[in-house]
Amino acid sequence: MSKKWLERTELLIKEKGTEKLQNANVMVVGLGGVGSFAAEFLARSGIGKMTIVDGDTVDITNINRQLPALHSTVGKTKAEIVAARLTDINPALELTVKTEFLNPENMGEILDSQNFDYVLDCIDSVSPKLSLIKESRRRKIKIISCMGAGGKMDASKIQVKDISKTYNCYLAKQVRKRLKRESNLQKGFKCVFSSELQREDSLKLTDGTNFKRSFYGTISYIPAAFGLFAAGEVINYLLKKGNSSNKPEED
């Protein structure tokens, strides 16, 4: 297949950069408003190998913010919709599709299934998110974890920092507390978060299905921006990987 579609990318990162991305293997867990955009940005950068994981189907309430969500796709599997889109962007992409929810019981199995250069945690429920973080760290796999995008509207407040430096995010606070209590893990992996305070009047309680007890209202661009920041962090890491002039990152 012609690589003409990557011409603009190669002008920026040069042939060596495109080769690094082509040889990279990443996994995106969760294909909602954050993960669907992150996966697309990765595919459009020329990442050569990717695993996408999500057991959910499109609901009509997803249309305001999720890439696979259209009126024509309601009821269809998110992972399969995203997979078709990614391979249409790059037919040479080596794509593994998992149409399942990750839980503590199967987390290790999927992490051991391939040699991943980076994992993008785009899960919006606390328990599976914690399991993915802990199991990735246990295996020394690089991971970036996306925190709460709901209840926020100011994209300029989005940041990437170590988990220990997050603030004004209830999800990040829960993750920090439980990681410290359950595994004494207090720092050492990057997070995408927003320092903007959640709008409390947008909170809605749920029945607890799929580990989710509540959620905040969302606007179209904030989850997408979280996905952009996550993908950007991963791409820039992969481009710098192996450069002797760069200092090693903290694990």
Automatic annotation (TrEMBL):
InterPro entries given in the database record: ThiF/MoeB/HesA (IPR045886), ThiF_NAD_FAD-bd (IPR000594), Ubiquitin-activating_enz (IPR035985)
SUPFAM superfamilies recorded: Activating enzymes of the ubiquitin-like proteins
Domain of life: Bacteria
Annotated coiled-coil segments of the chain: none
Keywords: Nucleotidyltransferase, Transferase
GO biological process: cyclic threonylcarbamoyladenosine biosynthetic process
GO MF terms, alphabetically ordered: molybdopterin-synthase adenylyltransferase activity; tRNA threonylcarbamoyladenosine dehydratase; ubiquitin-like modifier activating enzyme activity
Claim: Transferase is one of the keywords in the record: yes
Main EC class the enzyme belongs to: transferase
EC number: 2.7.7.80
Protein name: Molybdopterin-synthase adenylyltransferase
Lineage: Bacteria, Pseudomonadati, Bacteroidota, Flavobacteriia, Flavobacteriales
